[in-house]
Write a structure and sequence with these properties.
2 copies of one chain form a homodimer. By secondary structure, chain A is α+β, with helices and mostly antiparallel strands. Chain A has helices at 7-12, 52-73, 119-129; strands at residues 13-18, 22-27, 34-39, 77-82, 92-97, 138-142.
C-alpha cells in the first residue's frame, strides 16, 4: 500500500515540502502559525504503530520543526498534538501560540472558523520559516485542493 | 534545580507511579481514560528542550504507555498532546477516546466539567491498566492534593 495524503488534509492545507519521513503542511488558517507533519507511511493511525526507527525519526523531525517554528515565529508556547478523531491518517499538529491569540489559552480546535491565507500572508509565513528548517527538508509547494 | 510536580497537576490528578523518566498521572475526570506523562526534569516547557536522550526515552515511554492504554481500554482512538498553555511544566496527555464519548469527536479540553472518580471507579481503572504496563514502570499511588 503506497502512502497517499488523506483527501481532507490535502483540502485543508498548503503543502510546503518534506523531511525524510514527514510531509510538512500549513493549515489554511492564518489565525495561527499552524503546521502539520504527516509521516509518509500508509495505514498508520497512531504514533505507536510506527516501527521504532520511524518513530524515532518522526520525533526528531518534530523537534527540528518545533525549534524552527519557535525561532521563526517567536511564540509564547508550542502546542503539539496527534488527535485524529476526524481524519484517521496519523498527523502531528504543531501550533505556535501567543498569549492573546484568538483562542488563547484554550486549544485551537473548534474555536473559530478558519481564516484562509491571502497570497501575501502565505508568502510571508513561508519566507519566515524556510531559512530555519534543517538541511534535510526539501521545499515543494502545492496549494490546497 | 530539582524536579517537582507542578501544583496544578498534583491537584488535578491521581499519581499512579513512574517510568524511568516520566511520572504517570491519571486526570481526576472519570469521563475518559485520561493519563498524563510528566518527564522528571526541572524547568522544561517544550519537548524539544529535552536533550536528545531524554526525548527519545520520553517518546518510548509514551509509546509503551499508549500500547498499554489501548490494550487495557480498547479505545477507538488515542489522543496525544503537549499543550501547556495553562500549566507550563511539560506534560503529555494520553487520552483514550471512544466514538460516542461525551466530547467525541472534539478534543476533550473545555467541553465538560471534570467528573471526579469514585473510589470504586478509580480502583477499576487502575486495575485494568497496571498489568499492561512494562516492567520499567513502578507503581506508587498518591491521591490528588
Amino acid at each position: 500500500m503506497n502512502f497517499e495524503l488523506h483527501a481532507q488534509l490535502a483540502q485543508d492545507c498548503h503543502r510546503l515540502g518534506r523531511f525524510e519521513l514527514g510531509l510538512l503542511l500549513l493549515m489554511d488558517d492564518a489565525s495561527y502559525p499552524w503546521f502539520v507533519l504527516v509521516p509518509q507511511r500508509a495505514g498508520v493511525r497512531e504514533v505507536y504503530e510506527l516501527d521504532a526507527a520511524d518513530r524515532a525519526l518522526l520525533w526528531e523531525e518534530s523537534a527540528a520543526l518545533s525549534r524552527a517554528l519557535m525561532a521563526a515565529f517567536r511564540g509564547d508556547k508550542l502546542n503539539l498534538a496527534a488527535l485524529g478523531n476526524v481524519v484517521p491518517q496519523l498527523h502531528l499538529h504543531h501550533i505556535v501560540r501567543y498569549a492573546g491569540d484568538p483562542a488563547w489559552p484554550a486549544p485551537v480546535w473548534g474555536r473559530h472558523p478558519p481564516r484562509p491565507y491571502t497570497a501575501a500572508e502565505l508568502e510571508r509565513r513561508r519566507a519566515a520559516l524556510l531559512p530555519h528548517l534543517p538541511a534535510g527538508f526539501t521545499a515543494a509547494y502545492a496549494a490546497p485542493g
